[in-house]
Design brief:
Blueprint (H helix, E strand, L loop, with lengths): L1 H13 L7 H17 L6 H9 L9 E4 L2 E4 L2 H25 L3 H7 L13 H5 L2 H11 L12 H11 L11 H9 L4 H4 L1 H12 L5 H14 L20 H19 L9 H19 L13 H19 L3 H42 L3 H12 L8 E2 L5 E2 L2 H15 L5
Antiparallel strand pairs: 1-2, 3-4
Helix pairs in contact: 1-2, 2-4, 2-5, 5-7, 7-8, 9-11, 13-14, 15-16, 16-17
Protein name: HAT C-terminal dimerisation domain-containing protein
Organism: Mytilus edulis
């Protein structure tokens, strides 16, 4: 995988060039496919390094070390390795070739790139593009699948003889700029109608991924909401119900509210939907009033006593700001400083206890072979993991499958990058 991905990354970097032209595609794809296919018979440097560390025979333990990692080994795995490697390489090459099925078309369209045109008045200019024009006439000059031919073969050949005398004047200019400039001329589409069709094809063919990546960046800049400002759903702090005092207070409040509901006039709307709305409103309002919402998702390690001390500190802070008497203000500031020290001391203790508890959970998970739990705890302790952004369809419905998400991105960028609109 390491050897193959090195080549794929090089191909990817080529397509990130803003000045990518049609002729480059064939010069990149064909060598890349040949290099990848060559790995079927000859191991790349990464695979060769790995194979040099593999024992000649399967060990009794069924494992061996490579790069500090324990690798499982068995005769069946060794026999399947080669066949899987060959299948992977064949499928990767097939995907690359299917992604660029019309390399000859791209190669032929490269004659419209000013940087490849011979100098004006040279002998080479007279025969320039002959093979490419023959292919373009054969491919686009015939009716196909119920569609009329895109060009008139005879007229295109006549136009090309004149148009290639114009191209040297744009030598040194980027292809997209030169072709756009030509198409914007008032009389160009009238004088060269068939050539104009090909220039339009060249301009709308998205070769480089630069515009696509800019689209992603622009989307992130306009759509992405800062983490601290996300209008996410508030979560009730149900952990406070573990406190007996809070629990009793909540039960009493619910009981009083339901007594009020029983006294509602029976002649009013008594449908099931209305009853459910009333019940839901009672629970929601009571919960918000008694237990409140979670303060912060990254401070769940704090105990209820610590949160109570934090609330007391906040009240002292308000008292400091609202007190006008200098004597009372100085006394309140001392109380605030002592409470602040208490809060920080409690928070440090709670955090240590939380880390020890999570570490013990991780050790137990390792003992029972639960690597998923170990991974989650490790990610939690090392830093908050970011979830991928949600993808929605045009109606705002969230798309969950990878295939539908990929199709939605294609649809989005077709509409964003469509130059015809």
């Amino acid at each position: 995988m390491g050897d193959v991905m090195g080549i794929v990354c090089r191909v990817s970097r080529v397509f990130q060039r803003e000045d990518l032209t049609f002729s480059v595609i064939k010069d990149v794809i064909d060598p890349a496919c040949a290099a990848i296919l060559g790995m079927k018979s000859t191991a790349g440097p990464e695979l060769e390094s790995f194979l040099s560390e593999v024992p000649s025979e399967v060990q009794e333990s069924g494992n061996f070390l490579f790069g500090g990692n324990l690798i499982k080994d068995s005769p069946s795995q060794r026999s399947n390795f080669e066949s899987l490697r060959v299948k992977f390489i064949d499928q990767l090459v097939l995907n690359l070739k299917s992604r660029f099925p019309s390399q000859q078309i791209f190669q032929s369209l490269s004659i419209f790139d000013p940087q490849f045109v011979p100098s004006a008045g040279s002998q080479e200019l007279l025969s320039y593009g002959k093979e490419q024009v023959d292919f373009l006439c054969k491919h686009f000059g015939q009716d196909k699948g119920g569609h009329k031919a895109l060009i008139s073969e005879v007229h295109f050949r006549e136009e090309w003889l004149m148009f290639k005398q114009v191209l040297p004047g744009y030598k040194g200019v980027r292809m997209d700029s030169a072709l756009s400039s030509l198409l914007c001329k008032d009389s160009f589409a009238v004088d060269y109608p068939n050539v104009a069709n090909f220039l339009s094809i060249c301009l709308v063919s998205a070769l480089s991924s630069v515009d696509c990546e800019r689209g992603f960046s622009r989307y992130n800049l306009t759509e992405k909401v800062p983490y601290n400002n996300k209008p996410g759903r508030k979560i009730l702090n149900v952990n406070r119900l573990k406190e007996l005092e809070i629990k009793q207070k909540c039960v009493m409040e619910l009981r009083n509210r339901f007594l009020v509901l029983e006294e509602i006039d029976p002649t009013e709307d008594n449908s099931i939907e209305k009853k459910w709305e009333n019940i839901k409103e009672v629970y929601q309002n009571t919960s918000e009033k008694i237990i409140g919402f979670r303060k912060s998702s990254n401070k769940q390690c704090l105990t209820s006593d610590t949160w109570k001390a934090i609330d007391e500190r906040a009240k002292l802070k308000e008292k400091v700001l609202s007190t006008r008497s200098s004597r009372l203000k100085e006394q309140t500031q001392k109380e605030y400083a002592e409470k602040d020290k208490e809060v920080k001391k409690r928070a440090r203790k709670d955090k240590r206890n939380h880390l020890e508890e999570r570490a013990e959970e991780a050790e137990k998970a390792v003992a029972r072979g639960d690597l998923s739990t170990v991974y989650k705890i490790t990610k939690e302790l090392c830093g908050q993991s970011k979830q991928p952004p949600q993808v929605k369809d045009k109606n705002g419905k969230i798309i969950t499958t990878e295939r539908e998400q990929a199709a939605r991105w294609v649809e989005h960028f077709k509409s964003v990058l469509d130059q015809s609109q």
